[in-house]
Predict the structure.
Amino acid sequence: MGLSLKFPFSRGTQAAFSEGEGMLRHELLNAFNACMQPELFKDYGPNGLQVEGRPDIRTLVSGVTASRALIEAAIAQQADAIVVHHGLFWRGQDGTVTGWMKQRLALLLQHNINLFAYHLPLDAHPELGNNAQLARVLGLTVERQLGEQDLIFVGQPTQGAFASAESLAQHVQQRLERSVTLVSGLPQGVPIQRLAWCTGGGQGFFEQAIAAGVQAFITGEISEPQAHYARECGVAFLACGHHATERYGVQALASAVAAQHGLRHLHIDIDNPA
């Protein structure tokens, strides 16, 4: 059974419900870990169970970031667990529980909701990950993964080359429903046949993508150096939004695990212009 809902604070939600007997918290953790294999990654924060809630799981909510808005929406849906790409805890935090951290933790603990988070493992997964799912949304065929922890994906358009960097940017903007920042050094009239992409804050991988011989690189953000690299190296650089490029992986992961184990799953997208 499918359901589509709208929230005042949300860009919209998509849901796929399947009713079953549910599962225990440790069983859900094992299912996520078996898929994501977090032990293979050096990450910026803990992957797996970040906040312990009730032991029995029947309703699972997925979202990009463990924001207060997402937690409140999950509470409204009587969720037993939330799984996100951006969790609460990151390397370099001062360890205090004040302000926004106190507010989010208090909501989770008050309502006994489990919080799971998977960062780099969700970026790199070849089928359910952010990069793989972005390829699906944009109509790209994956040829290989490269770079540190296989976070750069390389491939080609499934339906044939894009006529120009501008046509690629227009296509991405339409599919992601988000404005795109394009900086291109690609010579006029040169079609785009090979691309690389890394969702979120992947702009630091641009030089490796250039070395791989691609004509365009897609990521979420742009920093000062990338504009110069694009112009000087004859490659197109597209910044398409950190959040916008990472909407799809956690939804795919939660949907797959929920379907396999008979959980009720609801994906909630809290819009973010970043």
In short: The longest strand covers residues 59-65.
